[in-house]
Write a structure and sequence with these properties.
- It is built from four helices and no strands.
- The protein has 102 residues and is mainly alpha-helical.
- It has a domain of 45 residues.
- The radius of gyration is 32 Å and the shape is elongated.
Amino acid sequence: MLKGTQNNAKRLKRIEEQMDLIVSNMEKARFLEYIEYAANRRRMLRNSFILGLARGVGSAIGFTLLGAFVIYLLRKVAHSSLPVLADFIAELLDIIDSKRIS
């Protein structure tokens, strides 16, 4: 009987240590704050909307800069001494310019 009580005490001690570890990990992860955040739908929607706007604006600016850089490189190649490639790129740039003007 004494041995069974000792085994139970060891099990309870091990379970208590594991529970302390779980609680500690949840506190480190700020789990309670996340639950409060998820429960507040208005705050969650507002943050998601702002994040979506930021991503959209960032993507538009990035694509614009990348496109401008590609056109700049194409113009440089068109003015270089690569005859076949330069003619093709010059024609492509003329099409781009005509679409931009109209």
